């Protein structure tokens, strides 16, 4: 945990961990630039991964942005150690390369939190004319900050020379400074609103893209079923992309498939059969949960997620196989190729599992190998080994072929 402060009161905003609310110890930062104590973020990672079963990712405690730990993340216990330090050598080199910040003293955080006599050094301003001399006065006549040597040698005849504290106090109270501060606050608010609006638009787009890409099911060569919400299922003519009819649906669903005049709706731990013409419920079955999508060959011959890391094949209400794998976390889309092999998208694990007809693992395909991170839905072209797979976090669609 972090160490209590003494002489670091002026650095609260910069040095306080938002988890333990104390001064950083061994600070680590995330890609979103939010920073935490190493032990704090480690504890958070372990509790999050264990609770949400996310596999290779965790969310920033502040902005909830996904943090992906790479292709070989190792055990979650090691993730905090792999995160970059809050201020690295590259940052220090860059900081010293600018004229404005080149002369700023850089203090080790360890020195700061152990209360060495460095806490006040960042408030010092150094003279541009005399290296190493601290600015202590200000010449109002020439509008220039002065060190002791400047005041003695170059400005001793000036009539209006004041201490730097007096000059700063005057600037803070000036009408121009007040106006500028107000304008900066207004600009900052406008930028914040713009960024938030952009995030909202991106989220809406991703959700819409997800629904459109994942809830498309072929009925025949010219008709397809699409749903952008759980209330309506649209039958679309794929020749001219016009709506053929709209079916009102009163049953919840994440995804669905069409088979022999019926839709099978998948939602959490329930599968619901409805008549594709009338919307009347014709059947129901329960699963062990986490059921988002379903593949069906016949009305009572289907494959779907059957729990957090299990996919089952059911034929005539009998479980033919139940495939389970530690690298199958939060399974989503499922489909079958022309040879009958089963493909399962593992959202949190970032991979695609290929199984034989009887549920034996053939191989695990890394999502990175097809250019995506979090595979969501997979669909094979009819009578072909070509397929598309969607990415949840980017909305990207990858078109691939099994060779």
UniProtKB/TrEMBL annotation:
SUPFAM superfamilies in the cross-refs: B-box zinc-binding domain, NHL repeat, RING/U-box
Enzyme Commission identifier(s): 2.3.2.27
Enzyme class: transferase
Domain RING-type, residue spans: 17-64
Ranges in coiled-coil conformation: 177-204
Pfam assignment, any one: zf-B_box
Domain B box-type: 122-164
Keywords tagged on the record: Acyltransferase, Coiled coil, Metal-binding, Phosphoprotein, Transferase, Zinc, Zinc-finger
GO molecular function annotation: ubiquitin protein ligase activity; zinc ion binding
Name this protein carries in UniProt: TRIM56
Organism this protein belongs to: Mytilus edulis
């Amino acid at each position: 945990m972090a160490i209590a402060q003494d002489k670091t009161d002026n650095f609260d905003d910069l040095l306080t961990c938002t988890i333990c609310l104390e001064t950083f110890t061994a600070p680590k930062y995330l890609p979103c630039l939010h920073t935490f104590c190493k032990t704090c973020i480690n504890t958070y990672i372990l509790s999050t991964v264990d609770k949400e079963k996310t596999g290779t990712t965790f969310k920033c405690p502040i902005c909830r942005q996904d943090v992906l730990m790479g292709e070989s993340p190792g055990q979650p216990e090691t993730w905090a150690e792999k995160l970059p330090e809050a201020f690295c050598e590259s940052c220090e080199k860059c900081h010293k390369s600018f004229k404005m910040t080149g002369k700023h003293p850089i203090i080790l955080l360890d020195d700061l939190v152990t209360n060495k006599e460095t806490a006040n050094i960042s408030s010092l301003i150094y003279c541009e004319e005399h290296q190493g001399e601290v600015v202590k006065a200000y010449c109002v006549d020439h509008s220039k900050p002065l060190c002791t040597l400047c005041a003695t040698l170059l400005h001793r005849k000036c009539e209006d020379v004041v201490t730097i504290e007096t000059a700063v106090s005057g600037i803070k109270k000036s009408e121009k400074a007040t106006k500028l501060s107000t304008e900066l606050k207004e600009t900052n608010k406008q930028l914040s609103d713009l960024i938030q609006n952009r995030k909202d638009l991106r989220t809406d787009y991703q959700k819409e893209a997800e629904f459109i890409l994942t809830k498309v099911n072929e009925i025949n060569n010219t008709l397809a079923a699409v749903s952008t919400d759980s209330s309506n299922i649209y039958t679309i003519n794929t020749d001219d992309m016009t709506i053929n009819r709209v079916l009102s649906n009163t049953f919840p669903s994440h995804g669905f498939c069409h088979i022999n005049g019926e839709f099978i709706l998948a939602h959490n731990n329930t599968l619901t059969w409805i008549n594709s013409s009338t919307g009347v419920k014709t059947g129901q079955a329960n699963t062990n949960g986490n059921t988002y999508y379903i593949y069906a060959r016949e009305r009572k011959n289907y494959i779907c997620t059957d729990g957090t890391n299990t996919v089952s094949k059911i034929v005539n209400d009998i479980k033919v196989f139940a495939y389970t794998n530690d690298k199958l976390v939060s399974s989503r889309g499922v489909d079958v190729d022309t040879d009958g092999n089963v493909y399962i998208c593992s959202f949190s694990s970032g991979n695609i599992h290929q199984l034989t007809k009887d549920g034996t693992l053939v191989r695990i395909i890394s999502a990175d190998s097809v250019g995506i991170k979090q595979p969501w839905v997979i669909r094979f072209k009819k009578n072909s080994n070509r397929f598309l797979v969607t990415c949840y976090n980017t909305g990207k669609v990858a078109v691939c072929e099994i060779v």
